[in-house]
Amino acid sequence: MGREFIYLFDEWAKSYEASVTGQHKEYRDVFEGYESILDKVANASTGTVIEFGTGTGNLTLKLEAAGRTVIGIEPHETMLEITRERCPNVQLINGDLQNFEIEIKHIDSIVSTYVFHHLTDDEKLEALITYSKLLQPGGKIIFADTAFATEEHMQAMITKERARGFHEVADDLEREYYTTIPKLQIMFQQASFDVKFEQLNDYVWYMEASKK
């Protein structure tokens, strides 16, 4: 359900902003174009939005600025507190991609950035089926996350990072549940979504899925 990696954020909560702004050289490529990625996700959303994995509230702030009604869901209490301080008017809930409780019945969009890879592929499909039940036809899932065109491409990127001594990012790629675009396409289709993908940097893909 994605909480097995929550311990990683005990320390990262303190340095997350440095990572996303390019100050951590190993993650510079992962977060290349970070602000534009957040803007793209926020601008594609509409109405009442569930945001999974608010982190330190960077996307949350952009959603607020775009006039969205945001329900933020975050499993890490320190991250949740940071978002609460930055976005005091947003409803925030301690929960994760699969375990959450909301009172609002009408949801227009479900968004996240750099989060969906915390689920196994089986869990990803289960989550998408759940989200499908929350959305009316035409409702959207808008994600941006690290993914790969093929398994071979993922292995090539791990090899590349090891070769340049970036073992922290390579360990991350081997530890968490990164998947491929063909697999994601099948998952979205099985959950009754039409989906399109766009690669935004060497790691991150934009995914916009409309409920059938």
TrEMBL record:
CDD domains: AdoMet_MTases (cd02440)
Highest taxon above the source species: Bacteria
Residues noted as binding S-adenosyl-L-methionine in the record, renumbered to the chain: G53, E74, D96
MF terms in GO: rRNA (adenine-N6,N6-)-dimethyltransferase activity
Transferase is among the record's keywords: yes
Gene3D superfamilies with a match to the protein in the record: Vaccinia Virus protein VP39
Chain ranges of the Ribosomal RNA adenine methylase transferase N-terminal domain: 37-190
UniProt xrefs under Pfam families: Methyltransf_25
Key words, A-Z: Methyltransferase, S-adenosyl-L-methionine, Transferase
Known EC number: 2.1.1.-
Cited SMART domains: rADc
Group of enzyme by EC: transferase
Purpose: Could be a S-adenosyl-L-methionine-dependent methyltransferase.
Family named by the database record: Belongs to the methyltransferase superfamily. YrrT family.
Protein's name in the database: Uncharacterized methyltransferase AMD00_11180
Native source species: Viridibacillus arvi
